[in-house]
Amino acid sequence: MSEAGLCWARLIRAGAGGVGNRVDELTALDSVVGDGDHGVNLVAGFKDVLARLDADHTMTAPQVLRATGDGLQESMAGAAGLLLGRFFVVASKAIEDRFDSETVSAVLSSGTAEIVKRGGAGVGDRSMVDALAPAATRARELTESGVSVAEILASAADEARKGADSTAVLVPRVGRAARATQTSTGKPDAGASSIALILEAWANEEARRTTDV
Length: 213
Fold this sequence. Notes:
The protein has helices at residues 3-20, 23-33, 38-55, 61-75, 78-94, 101-119, 129-145, 149-166, 175-180, 190-212. It is mainly alpha-helical. The longest helix is centred in the C-terminal third of the chain and has 23 residues, at 190-212. The chain is globular, with a radius of gyration of 16 Å.
């Protein structure tokens, strides 16, 4: 893989591990108003993704993201797989073969915009957008200040976690959850929580890599 491709592949692998380590938590959250399969579906999707990354060691950064998107779309059931897959597919078209602050920001911004477009949810609708949108905004702000990738990912992950936690008091307005209940559940949205877990894993991986250099 290219140097940038390796960096992105490390993040993708870290995100897969972050989700896998908390699959029971995601299952419990999704069981509140959903089928309870969000965590299991994510694990299946990332298993496909990792197999694709292991099978091709010549990938560039855009190709790593494209493989991630394709794997998630093809191996995850339901709307979450489509939306997360589209996040990475569109992000792959928004970047060059680089791993820097501007590229990380572009991935978050372009991917989030695609999820908003495809899913129809906005901030406050109790969805993964509640975690993604503030993370993307913070990344964009910090990129303009010239900070490192590690700092951007750490701050983006913090914003994603705050956004995910905020969904506990929100009423679902889109998707299956909106049809299942018209009140807040007192528990964070599973989709938003999975985004927070992925970005936290990215931040931890980049912090570790930077420390080891």
